[in-house]
């Protein structure tokens, strides 16, 4: 196909590596937001030593593998899949898909008929190959000095105990289990226990409010919820059990009652006797789990049986239950982890993401454990008790691969470099970035200061929906460009289209789509296949539409430019503007709300909310606070608006549609770029809003 050959040609023209290898320029950090004139020409080469030892050591080697992956996807992926344990081999057709809404229902299947279990492949398989005594999880608590670890053998025992408990509680293959836990080892344990018995886990990030948790419970109707009483995050105590109690009360009212609330007593945060208890429903984890058997037979499942649900934000107020299945997700997360981080068995790997997000699913739990890796799980806040905590942990565990989000990089680069340089960090080998575009200045600081100009950065572009990396560096294979996620992973065929959905070739910018499926792709939105089809495959028929804007430079490098839909990305967290708006209008004094994203120095984007009040209600500081509180309690603290802008009227077309384009310009004070306001029902509201912004 055209795009494939285009991409191959682009990479073929990358003859720069052999002559450039070994040269590592010391880049000068530039101030935040300031771009170099020739950003695209700014190449950062891996050292010769790094490349020589890398799994993929040159553009040519990548090209060879990439060519096979798109020309013979069945052969490419089944060779890799064969490295895992399958109780029964998949059928003749490795992949069957319909990616085109015009040809009927969207449908994606990989390794259909293959019988396997991802928990078995994470644990039992690695133990059988002699790694039972290798450390699987290295846990670091919120308080320095408080830690723990589990070998692969020990992890399997813990997983089996919980799996046995869940089975005794009546959880069967296909049943949903909601997990609302902080970053304790019990969180990956819970995910693996569900997978072991074929239950579908739905992890809800423990920063979500009772309302959000309840909304997810009502949607997926779990038999059991796994949680803990409380957690310390930095200096702050968070009473999770309070949130769960409120969520369960609300769900019960909506007709979804949960029989069992298995609660881990996190003694370091809160005494068990201080925990509010619902006799009959609540059960202490420590009272029942240690008594359960430490072996548990595996529930063998089809490659296309569901593995998990993870709710994410879209452009309407209702979160989408992204559903991933077992076989393709397993093969894809394992393979992307291995190549994007150039993983070697001696590595110690730390991803700072929470398992409540997709990054924690694919690259804290499944991808690394499938590779038999040693994984650091950190409970606390990355800047607690001070800005050096991450590097203290890196030195303590000799972390060699460190994967984090641009927002953390930006917040740490505001502090003195001394917080970094007082630690050795010499164990570091590869750095990673995910969640949002990383601005070149943050990239340089990460590269120069954290990585001592030694460690390539894998800027991995992907989504909850994609299951794993779609565009990512392979760190030994080609030079990096600060701010670019570089090239597509094996088997991925990115396409940039214009407004009309026509593919654009060569150097260009437009909407980022994908031409055909990859094994880790999500298969549906839980309970709403139609929304799956319209939201992702309807905009540009024939393609999967990511919702992101993107450009491709003359060397074929991809540059992600952020969401082009009504989703904003705050500190790498996806938030739908409609969700925040519906939280705001639930406030009795708020009549209407319009939310837009604005540039934010640390968070990437901040939340800017225009609110119209109920007739006769005066705007005040108390009301502002109360509106922000409403969003915190409806969604979670991470979604709290950074700015509330009182709007007696909103700019609307004559048909009543809010013109967000204008609101975005007002929010970012680009007042000379307001554009044509003559089509507004009442053009006067614009001046009124501008005046109120200055007030
Ligand atoms: C993995 C994850 C997905 C959205 C995605 C895009 C943004 C993620 C990025 C990136 C530029 C990167 N995004 N990684 N943008 N460069 N390396 O974050 O999933 O929470 O579903 O968010 O995040 O806008 O569309 P998710």
UniProtKB/TrEMBL annotation:
Keywords assigned by UniProt, alphabetized: ATP-binding, Ligase, Nucleotide-binding, Phenylpropanoid metabolism
AMP-binding enzyme C-terminal domain ranges (all copies): 579-657
Residues of the Acetyl-coenzyme A synthetase N-terminal domain: 62-122
Enzyme class, broadest EC rank: ligase
Reaction catalyzed: acetate + ATP + CoA = acetyl-CoA + AMP + diphosphate
Every AMP-dependent synthetase/ligase domain range: 130-517
Pathway: Phytoalexin biosynthesis; 3,4',5-trihydroxystilbene biosynthesis; 3,4',5-trihydroxystilbene from trans-4-coumarate: step 1/2
GO MF, one annotated term: ATP binding
Record-linked InterPro entries: Ac_CoA_lig, ACAS_N, AMP-bd_C, AMP-bd_C_sf, AMP-binding_CS, AMP-dep_synth/lig_dom, ANL_N_sf
CDD domains: ACS
EC number assigned by the record: 6.2.1.1
UniProt keyword ATP-binding, yes or no: yes
Family that this chain belongs to: Belongs to the ATP-dependent AMP-binding enzyme family.
UniProt protein name: Acetyl-coenzyme A synthetase
